[in-house]
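Example (one chain per record):
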Amino acid sequence: MLIRKNISLDEKDFMKLQPLVEKQNGNFSAAIRDAIKLTDIALKNQGSVEEAVEILKCNQCMTDEDKIIINRHLLDWLLKNSRGLIPELEIINQVIDPFAFSTVGEFDGYIKEMVKKYNWQCQTSITSIDTSGSEKIRVEISNKNNNFNEFIALNIVLFLASWKKVDIENIHRKPGKLSIDLVRTDEPFTEIPEGIKKHFGYLEPVYKEINNNYKFWHRVISEYIESGYNIVALPRDQFEEFIAGEIANGVRIIESKANIPIDKIDLVDLLILFKDQFSVYRLVNNIEINLKPGNETLIVHHDYRDKRAISTITKYFSSIFEASGYRFNATHTSTLIIFERIEDSK
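Predicted structure:
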């Protein structure tokens, strides 16, 4: 049964039908029937025309030679195992068109549209906040996959750093959500800002070093694993002093890391630096510190059997505290070296 209806179309809607009209050799009724078939498929498979349009846009995007479809589990593995690494800015500029916007608000809309276009299924918010006359930019990413949040945030933050000359002030990580506050920096963008390196690029120097000298580091790591980390690593000058029968000058190690004379280092900072540095050297098994004011204590766990070795290590550590001006009373047992602060010191 044929049903005849009169319909009115805007010119722009009529033009959208032109490919179907041409396909049907100018038969407008046949073109309308084709459009109805397409609409019926959209409603049956996607639930709405709007949903179908979005899927088609995504599929069209995937035909671009720069785009690929990847299994979600494989993507998660790639994201998880690339955390701590920062892509080159040139790559970011291939993803984000720097000429497509001029304000933070427009950039926020651009990113939202890109997320929708690629069907990334996450929520993004990029806002400019004026705090006491100082502009801040807040970036928020929400997705149940934390690795994905990190990846999207890194791309956005790295672009903002080059565009707006900002660096990370605060970062808040919660399950399913990542919030980052960025502040302006006076430094020109000639390299990755320190805040971004700290929070997102912490494996960059490690990766580059291993990549440049793979055989050496593979052997070193294998040795550490096979020995259960029972290997001591010391600067060569320190080792030379020890094998010459002297008490090595550990002050140089502390000052080189703090970049200030040892007697200018705050006690809390000194104890934290001491623990971090000598734990890495593996001279001892473990170092515990108590930072309670007036009751600062440092407990060193070791497994040295020779009393002379225990005495030498005790003197080595004691010389560092003596040079700092903070006086500690040192006692040792077969497994512990205990440093207790003398209250009237410094």
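Caption: The CA atoms of residues 250 and 317 lie 7 Å apart.
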